[in-house]
């Protein structure tokens, strides 16, 4: 090989690569665009939105789902790098979990006991489970695609963080339409949908994020 060819090859190999952070941000923009497109095709914003954000129970749904998405991004970016301690990062879930716990406690205090079960069951439980999952799917696919550039020691944990991120964003989108505002409903049905996305992310990530 000629010296000039070698120099050109080395220069090509050292071209700056997109960081994990910017790669994930770009992928999430694409995935979220897909989720928004699904929302526009299937659903419509709830009547009175965004004025309803002044209602504490409505606002809580967005605080919980978006804070979960935010901490999941933080967890995912750390879990796809070697040396990350998966268990030590779980404490960050205390942020969305704490907000939801306060909301549930307040609901139990101010609502008569006979109103607890109707609030938990709501009116659209099946739609919540299916639509949060559906709108989270393109986000999960985009997140896992971006995270493949990492080198996680625990790919299932990294995939689970991607799933929780997708579930949080899918839940936030569905909340724009949802008329079930009880924190008991959010805990149960949003929680099940997000849990499903988290498990799906772990199972898929265990295979696709391995190196």
From TrEMBL:
Q: Where are the transmembrane segments?
A: 24-46, 58-77, 89-112, 124-147, 156-175, 187-205
Q: Which UniProt keywords apply?
A: Membrane, Transmembrane, Transmembrane helix
Which InterPro entries does its entry note?
NrsF (IPR009495)
Return the protein name.
NrsF family protein
The top of its lineage is: Bacteria, Pseudomonadati, Pseudomonadota, Alphaproteobacteria, Hyphomicrobiales
